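Budget justification aside, the reviewers requested a transparent look at the raw inputs and outputs of the sequence design task funded under Objective 1. We therefore reproduce one unedited record. The lines immediately below are the structure tokens for a 266-residue chain.
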């Protein structure tokens, strides 16, 4: 039996709720072996990000080559890349190792509101990484920042922004509407051929730290297991919804706590 393997290329969250830690927990919960390439170290907790230390580009490249030269990787999730040189290094690594099942979560701002992406890096992200991804997963704030536009106010504007991201090179866009007003959390999966609406009732909890990381890594886990993109996205949405619904069972930290990655096991 072949073991499905996914790699997360992202930043480390010292409090364990987001970033590399959330990705590896998600892979494990969904039956996928997880490996990692750490792009940045953050000193953070449930209340905010206190400091960021970027991993040197040559060491990011060394991690990529070590992992991909040995492991038979089925899918890749990309998260926090805070500076242009890190983005270029990861793009070159994907090219070097012929990776196509790539989920790109354009992490720009933490749940706490702390900025994680240098403004100068946005154009490099659009040029070098978005065209290499199978799917890009921005929330409303990230989509607006990528396009330098106001926040989408409804599903029509969400779809319009997703289509603009397709035009700059994305193959598919999952635009996440969880920050929008209203009782539903609506995401749109938009491809050049069609758009699919994924909706769940919003869950009343403050414990949403790492939800974007968890969703994108859950999509990568599905792709690693051989699911089609639409199947992987639907399964990931269901998993994250259940993880948020169970989040209040945990007592972690004094701020916005994490989702419950192992809700089906603990």
């Amino acid at each position: 039996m072949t073991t499905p393997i996914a790699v997360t290329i992202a930043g480390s969250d010292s409090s364990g709720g987001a970033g590399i830690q959330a990705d590896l927990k998600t892979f494990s919960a969904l039956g996928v072996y997880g490996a990692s390439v750490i792009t940045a170290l953050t000193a953070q907790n449930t209340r905010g990000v206190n400091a960021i230390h970027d991993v040197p580009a040559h060491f990011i490249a060394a991690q990529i080559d070590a992992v991909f030269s040995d492991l038979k990787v089925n899918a890749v999730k990309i998260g926090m890349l805070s500076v242009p040189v890190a983005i270029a290094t990861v793009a070159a690594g994907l090219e070097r190792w012929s990776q196509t099942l790539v989920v790109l979560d354009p992490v720009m701002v933490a749940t706490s509101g702390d900025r994680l992406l240098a403004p100068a890096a946005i154009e490099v992200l659009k040029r070098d990484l978005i065209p290499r991804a199978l799917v890009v997963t921005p929330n409303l704030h990230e989509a607006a920042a990528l396009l330098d536009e106001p926040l989408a106010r409804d599903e029509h504007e969400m779809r319009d922004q997703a289509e603009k991201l397709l035009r700059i090179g994305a193959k598919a866009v999952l635009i996440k509407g969880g920050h929008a007003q209203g009782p539903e959390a609506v995401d749109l999966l938009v491809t050049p051929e069609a758009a699919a609406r994924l909706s769940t009732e919003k869950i009343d909890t403050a414990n949403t730290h790492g939800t974007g990381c968890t969703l994108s890594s859950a999509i990568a886990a599905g792709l690693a297991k051989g699911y089609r993109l639409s199947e992987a996205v639907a399964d990931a949405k269901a998993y994250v919804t259940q993880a948020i619904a169970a989040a209040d069972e945990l007592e972690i930290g004094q701020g916005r706590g994490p989702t419950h990655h192992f809700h089906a096991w603990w």
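The two ends are 27 Å apart (CA to CA). The chain has a mean pLDDT of 94. Computational costs for records of this kind are itemized in the attached budget.
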